[in-house]
Amino acid sequence: MSFQSATPYLHLNGKAEEAMAFYQSALGADLISSQRFGELDDSCPAAMKDRIMHAVMKVGEGMIMMSDGMPDAAPPAGMSVSVALSCTDAEATRKRFDALAEGGAVIAPFNKAPWGAWFGSLTDKYGIAWMFNCDQPS
User: Fold this and answer.
1) CA nearest 36: which of 76, 73, 75, 67?
2) Which residues pair with 105 in a beta bridge?
3) How far apart are CA 75 and CA 90, in angstroms?
4) Does 82-134 match 9-67 at the fold level?
5) Which residues does the UniProt record annotate as the domain PhnB-like (predicted)?
6) d(CA 47, CA 71)
7) Of 3, 6, 23, 41, which residue is the least packed, with the fewest Cβ within 10 Å?
């Protein structure tokens, strides 16, 4: 078996639609597809009908997937994963970093790193960890 790719899957507990709009604005992400639980099954409980069952967004050349999940279900245990973004323009990356940090927490400010790249990390307002690495000088 040969892997084609690995894609981060974000569990957003009822905030997927809000997060999609935020990622479009902050990262310039494009919504590829989105499906609600109610589109799948007419017998879906009313509380579930409008929740995002599955969505796919393109971020640069990569993808992220997300879901609202079930209303009473906690996100999977062990959410110790970060979405790593490799970037080519430090100035544009700083703007994206700052936009994504709004309402969240900066872990490492976007600065020149010891290995020569520009690097920063943060947790966004949805609890998702992000790392930005840019090899281009600013």
Assistant:
1) 67
2) 123
3) 33
4) yes
5) 5-130
6) 8
7) 3
Q: Where are the domains of the chain?
A: 9-67, 82-134
Highest mean pLDDT among 70-74, 75-79, 95-99: 95-99
Structure token pair of residue 89 = 């323009």
Residue 27: closest CA among 68, 3, 62, 55? 62
Q: What angle do CA 132, 55, 107 make, to 5 degrees?
A: 25
Taking only the tens place, the pLDDT of each residue in 34-48 is 999 899 778 888 888
Gap between the Cα atoms of 80 and 52, Å rounded: 23
Angle between helix 90-101 and helix 16-27 axes, rounded to 10 deg: 150
Q: Where are the beta strands (DSSP E) in 41-104?
A: 52-59, 62-67, 82-87
Topology adopted by domain 9-67: 3.30.720
Residue 83 sits at φ, ψ, to 5 deg, of -90, 120
Q: Which residues, other chains included, contact 72 with Cβ-Cβ below 8 Å and sequence gap of 6+?
A: none
Is the pLDDT higher at 47 or at 22?
22
DSSP 37: H
Task: Write out the CATH class of domain 82-134.
Answer: alpha beta
